[in-house]
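Severity: low
Component: inverse-folding endpoint
Summary: output formatting inconsistent between runs
Steps to reproduce: submit the following C-alpha cells with default settings.
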C-alpha cells in the first residue's frame, strides 16, 4: 500500500486525487457484481480505536510557530485514512501502518502550516474562476455517467471541502512557482529522452467497451431457481436479438447498478472482470449480442460496442503528457526544496520521539 508523501500531498491536486481514487473500474459503482472477489474485511477501525484508547487526545505532538497539532487531531486523520482501506490491510500490520501514518500526518501538518503562512505572506490569492477551471478538469476525468456529486459522496467529502482544497493547492502552487519565476518548458530532447527511457509507460492495453444485462443468481440457490433465472436471461437475449432495445431491456430487467446507464460498463481491460465474462467480452464480435454467459454472479447478456487492440503511443501522441509530467516533477522538486527551507527557518517543536531523523 502506498501512502502519500508530503511533497505529493502539497503539489498534486488534492481534490483530484481524492475523487479519481474512487473511479477505478474494479471499484466503480457500475461494476460491483463483476469485480474480482473482495478480500476478507478486516476490523481496522476497531483495532485503531483499541490502539489509541490509552492515548491523551489533548497531547501536543508538534507545534509550528505557535500552531499546535494534537493526538486527537492525528487520530481523526489516521482513522479516516484507515477507513478508506478497510478490508485491504492485514490485521497484523495495523500497528506498523498506524505508526507510519502518524509520522506522515505530523509531517503533513508541518508542511501545510508553513506553506499556508508563506502563501499568505506572499499575498497569493485564488479566484473562484480559477477554482471552477480545476473543477471542470476533475469532471472531465470522471467515468461516463458519473456526476461530481456522486464522486464526492463516494469519497466522503463535500463540495465546499473540495473547493477549499483546490484553493489551497493553487495558492501553494503559485507560492512554489514564485521561487523560480524563470522556469523553462521541457525541451524536445528532454521529452524524447523521457519517452525512450520510459516506453513501457506508453503501452495501451487491449480493451473493450461493453454493456450487459445481469440476471442475478446465487450459488446457494437450488437448481430449479437457477434454471428459471437462466431461462429468463435466454428469453431476454432472444428479444434483444429480435430487435428489442438493449438499453431499455437492461433498465427494466438487469440486477446490476449499470442498468441506470442502460447496462453500459464503460471500457475495461483484461483482469478487471471475472474470467467467464472477460472471455466472452474479448471474443465476441462488435455489436453482436452474444449467448447467455454464466458467472458466479448469475447470467449475463453481453454486447461489445468497441474492441481496441493493444498499442504503444507514438512520441507525438505522448508529447504533451510527457511535457506535463516533466513539469510536475520539477514542481515537486522545487516544492521539496522550498518546504525544507521553510522548515529550517521555522520554530518547530516535536513531542519526544516524534522528531524526524536528520537527513
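Observed output (run 2 of 3):
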Amino acid at each position: 500500500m502506498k501512502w502519500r508523501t508530503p511533497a505529493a500531498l502539497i503539489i498534486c491536486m488534492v481534490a483530484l486525487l481524492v475523487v479519481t481514487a474512487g473511479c477505478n473500474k474494479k471499484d466503480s459503482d457500475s461494476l460491483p457484481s463483476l469485480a474480482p472477489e473482495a478480500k476478507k474485511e478486516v476490523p481496522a477501525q476497531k483495532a485503531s480505536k483499541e490502539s489509541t484508547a490509552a492515548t491523551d487526545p489533548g497531547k501536543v505532538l508538534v507545534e509550528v510557530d505557535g500552531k499546535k497539532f494534537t493526538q486527537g487531531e492525528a487520530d481523526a486523520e489516521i482513522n479516516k485514512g484507515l477507513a478508506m482501506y478497510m478490508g485491504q490491510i492485514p490485521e497484523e500490520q495495523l500497528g506498523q501502518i498506524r505508526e507510519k501514518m502518524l509520522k506522515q500526518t505530523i509531517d503533513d501538518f508541518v508542511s501545510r502550516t508553513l506553506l499556508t503562512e508563506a502563501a499568505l505572506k506572499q499575498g497569493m490569492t485564488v479566484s473562484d474562476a480559477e477554482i471552477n477551471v480545476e473543477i471542470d478538469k476533475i469532471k472531465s476525468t470522471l467515468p461516463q455517467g458519473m456526476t461530481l456529486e456522486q464522486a464526492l459522496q463516494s469519497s466522503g467529502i463535500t463540495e465546499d471541502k473540495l473547493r477549499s482544497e483546490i484553493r489551497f493547492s493553487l495558492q501553494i502552487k503559485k507560492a512554489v512557482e514564485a521561487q523560480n519565476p524563470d522556469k523553462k518548458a521541457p525541451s524536445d530532447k528532454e521529452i524524447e529522452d523521457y519517452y525512450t527511457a520510459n516506453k513501457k509507460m506508453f503501452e495501451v492495453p487491449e480493451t473493450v467497451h461493453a454493456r450487459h444485462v445481469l440476471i442475478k443468481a446465487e450459488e446457494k440457490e437450488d437448481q430449479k431457481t437457477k434454471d428459471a433465472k437462466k431461462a429468463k436471461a435466454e428469453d431476454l437475449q432472444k428479444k434483444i436479438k429480435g430487435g428489442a432495445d438493449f438499453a431499455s431491456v437492461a433498465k427494466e430487467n438487469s440486477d446490476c447498478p449499470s442498468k441506470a446507464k442502460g447496462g453500459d460498463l464503460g471500457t475495461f481491460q483484461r483482469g478487471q472482470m471475472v474470467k467467464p465474462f472477460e472471455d466472452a467480452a474479448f471474443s465476441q464480435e462488435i455489436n453482436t449480442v452474444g449467448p447467455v454467459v454464466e458467472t458466479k454472479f448469475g447470467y449475463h447478456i453481453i454486447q461489445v460496442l468497441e474492441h481496441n487492440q493493444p498499442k504503444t503511443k507514438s512520441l507525438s501522441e505522448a508529447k504533451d503528457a510527457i511535457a506535463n509530467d516533466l513539469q510536475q516533477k520539477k514542481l515537486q522538486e522545487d516544492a521539496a526544496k522550498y518546504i525544507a527551507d521553510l522548515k529550517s527557518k521555522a520554530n518547530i517543536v516535536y513531542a519526544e520521539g516524534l522528531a524526524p531523523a536528520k537527513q
